[in-house]
C-alpha cells in the first residue's frame, strides 16, 4: 500500500495566512503531463471535489485528485520562503529527476 502525501505545518500555516478556508478554497496539488522533465505540478487554490483526497490541518485543506495520487505517494508538501521567492514546494520520493526550477520532474 502506498503512503499518502503529507503536508507540513508550515504549509498549513501559509494557507491560513492567505485565508484559503475562509473563502471555501483548498490548495490543490495535481500532476499533469508537460514541463521539461515529463511531468509538472499544478498547485493552485481551488474548490475541493467529493472524490479528492483531503489532507487537513490548522483549519486548512490540501486536496489531491485520484489521478495524481499515485505520482504523489509519500510526497511532502511544504512552503518555502527564501530570498528568491516564496512558494509551495513538493519533496517527491517518486521523482527520479527534476528540472532546475523544481516545477517539473520525471518518474
From TrEMBL:
GO biological process, one term: iron-sulfur cluster assembly
Domain named Core: residues: 7-102
UniProt-listed InterPro entries: ATAP, ATAP_core_dom, FeS_cluster_insertion_CS, HesB-like_dom_sf
Gene3D superfamilies the UniProt entry points to: HesB-like domain
Signal peptide positions on this chain: none
GO molecular function terms noted in the UniProt entry: 2 iron, 2 sulfur cluster binding; 4 iron, 4 sulfur cluster binding; iron ion binding
TM spans (from-to): none
Identification of the protein by name: Heme biosynthesis protein HemY
Amino acid at each position: 500500500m502506498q503512503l499518502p502525501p503529507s503536508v507540513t505545518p508550515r504549509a498549513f500555516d501559509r494557507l491560513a495566512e492567505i485565508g484559503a478556508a475562509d473563502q471555501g478554497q483548498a490548495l490543490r496539488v495535481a500532476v499533469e503531463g508537460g514541463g521539461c522533465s515529463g511531468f509538472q505540478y499544478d498547485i493552485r487554490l481551488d474548490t475541493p471535489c467529493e472524490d479528492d483526497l483531503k489532507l487537513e490541518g490548522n483549519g486548512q485543506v490540501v486536496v489531491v485528485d485520484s489521478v495524481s495520487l499515485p505520482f504523489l505517494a509519500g510526497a511532502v508538501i511544504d512552503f518555502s520562503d527564501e530570498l528568491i521567492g516564496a512558494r509551495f514546494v513538493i519533496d517527491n520520493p517518486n521523482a527520479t529527476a527534476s528540472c532546475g526550477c523544481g516545477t517539473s520532474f520525471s518518474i
